[in-house]
Specification:
Number of strands: 6
Radius of gyration: 27 Å
Strand content: 5-15%
Order of helices and strands: HHEEEEEEHHHHHHH
Number of domains: 1
Shape: flat
Distance between the termini: 108 Å
Largest sheet: 4 strands, antiparallel
Structural class: alpha+beta
Length: 257
C-alpha cells in the first residue's frame, strides 16, 4: 500500500526567514501607528505654529499684497482691514474689530457698532477711546489689541487670581482653546500652560495634533469641526469667555466689599 506523502516541514532557515520578515512587517506597522500618535505639547505646538504661518496667507504679511493673480488681488491694510480687487469690483473687507497705534500715536482701526447706539451716545463724552468703547458697549477683550493696548484687552486675565484663570480655561472647548492660542500667539500659550491641568493640556495637545493632521470632529469627539481656518469663531468664543468670567469675578468682588 502506497504511503501518503506528508507535507514537508519548513526548514530552520525558512522558519527564521519568515520570523524575520513578519517581525519587520510588525515593526513597520507599529512605526506607522506611532507616526499618527500625538507627540509632546511643545512639539505639536511648534508644528501647529508653522502650519498656521504657511496656510494662512493673510498672516504672512503685516501689510501689503497678500495674493495676486492676473485677475485678482488681495491687499492687507492692517490686521482686520483688506482691499480686494477683481475684474468688476474693488471692495474693502473688514474681518473684525481691531485697534492699533498709528504714526501719530493715536488709536486707529475699525469697529462694528450699532448705528442706533451711535446716535444715542453722541451727546455723551466720547472724546477718549475708553469713553467711546464704554458708551458703545464694545468689550475691549474683543479687540485683541497690541502690547500698547488699554489695560482691559484680553491680557486683563493675567492679573486675575488663579481661581478665575482656571475658570476661564474650563469655559473653553479644547479645539477653540487651541485655535485661540494660535491666533493670539505665545503669550496666550504661556498663560494656558501656566494654569491648565495635565488633562486639559493633553486635550489641547490632541487638538493641535488633529489640526496638524488636517482632521476634525470625525476623528476627535472634542472637536467642533474647526480647522485652522476656524480661528475667527474661536476668538469670539475666547472673548466671550473672558467677558463672562470677568463679570462673575467683578460681581463677587463687589458683593464681598
Amino acid at each position: 500500500m502506497a504511503k501518503t506523502k506528508q507535507p514537508s516541514k519548513p526548514g530552520f532557515f525558512s522558519r527564521f526567514l519568515n520570523l524575520f520578515l513578519s517581525n519587520g512587517k510588525t515593526e513597520d506597522l507599529d512605526s506607522a501607528k506611532r507616526k499618527k500618535e500625538p507627540k509632546t505639547f511643545a512639539m505639536e505646538w511648534a508644528v501647529a505654529i508653522d502650519n498656521w504661518k504657511k496656510k494662512l496667507r493673510t498672516k504672512q504679511v503685516s501689510s501689503g499684497v497678500v495674493f495676486e493673480s492676473p485677475k485678482f488681488r488681495l491687499t492687507k491694510t492692517n490686521e482686520k482691514l483688506f482691499r480686494v480687487e477683481g475684474l468688476d469690483y474693488s471692495l474693502i473687507l473688514v474681518t473684525g474689530n481691531h485697534l492699533y497705534k498709528n504714526k501719530e500715536d493715536k488709536w486707529s482701526g475699525v469697529l462694528f457698532v450699532d448705528e442706533g447706539d451711535l446716535n444715542k451716545n453722541l451727546t455723551k463724552d466720547i472724546s477718549s477711546l475708553d469713553g467711546l468703547l464704554s458708551s458703545l458697549a464694545i468689550p475691549k477683550t474683543d479687540l485683541f489689541l497690541d502690547t500698547n493696548a488699554p489695560k482691559e484687552d484680553w491680557r486683563i486675565v493675567l492679573t486675575w487670581e488663579r481661581f478665575w484663570k482656571e475658570q476661564l480655561v474650563l469655559q473653553m472647548k479644547p479645539n477653540s482653546m487651541a485655535l485661540a492660542m494660535l491666533a493670539i500667539g505665545e503669550e496666550c500659550r504661556i498663560f494656558f500652560e501656566s494654569v491648565a491641568t495635565d488633562r486639559q493640556k493633553k486635550l489641547v495637545r490632541d487638538e493641535l495634533f488633529y489640526l496638524n493632521l488636517g482632521l476634525t470632529d470625525q476623528n476627535n469627539p472634542y472637536s467642533k469641526a474647526k480647522n485652522l481656518f476656524g480661528f475667527g469663531s474661536a476668538l469670539v468664543e475666547f472673548g466671550n469667555a473672558v467677558n463672562t468670567i470677568k463679570e462673575r469675578r467683578d460681581k463677587e468682588q463687589n458683593h464681598g466689599s
